[in-house]
Amino acid sequence: AQEIGGDDKEVVREYFNNVGFDRWKKIYGEETEGVNRVQLDIRVGHSKTVENTIAMLKGGGPLSGVTVCDAGCGTGSLAIPLALEGAIVYAADISAAMVEEARRQAEEAIAGAEGVTMPEFRVRDLENLEGKYHTVVCLDVLIHYPQEKAEGMISHLASLAENRLVLSFAPKTFYYNLLKRLGELFPGPSKATRAYLHAERDVERALEKVGWRVRRRGFITTQFYFANLVEAVPF
Ligand code: SAM
């Protein structure tokens, strides 16, 4: 990963509206043509994170009628299956391209499904999300937040959640491993935004500061993908 100066958030928005959109739409998609080995491996890892998240959420009871905010929804990998489970989903992303793709996929997947509410998709920076939701989920977005900004972001997400907050992030313990692999993942210049890894302890501390504790945790790994998954609840 290379360092890009300036405002990280603007860089992230720009990336996910352009080269990052094409790249991640491909990774999160189903086609295999033109998808390389590393991207396929990340696809597998990420879908495990989505699966584990859904299992975690269903562990708390059926999702029918449960309000869920999916912060940084990407192409809708989580929002769509949650809606199909009967959840009332509000999904937002900083990238208009991502939101448009998520909406397109949702229309395809949900059209005609009985008793399913179409997620409400919005182009919105997660710091500007408002309202209250039974559950807030934020998968693989912390990688775009430096530690000093992660705390505020976690506290904001917790303020939107009434019952639980589920977060996934790339753990810092795998820093060197990941760095090595990121070299393969982002071989050329201008393909990557900076990647920030987080220590589980730091994430937990940020949650504790605002009165939340980790109730369940998981770890997902494939060759090129690493994620800690935590489910937090109010103390
Ligand atoms: N959560 C989705 C998933 O797991 O399929 C997408 C993960 S993708 C690696 C990261 C996403 O976070 C991108 O779609 C990006 O546009 C979005 N994102 C990054 N920073 C954001 C911010 N500050 N507010 C909202 N979305 C953001």
TrEMBL record:
GO biological process: chlorophyll biosynthetic process; methylation
GO molecular function, one term: magnesium protoporphyrin IX methyltransferase activity
Protein name: Magnesium-protoporphyrin IX methyltransferase C-terminal domain-containing protein
Magnesium-protoporphyrin IX methyltransferase C-terminal domain mapped to chain residues: 138-233
Organism from which the protein derives: Platanthera zijinensis
The organism's taxonomic lineage, starting at the top: Eukaryota, Viridiplantae, Streptophyta, Embryophyta, Tracheophyta
Entry keyword set: Methyltransferase, S-adenosyl-L-methionine, Transferase
Highest taxon listed in the record's lineage: Eukaryota
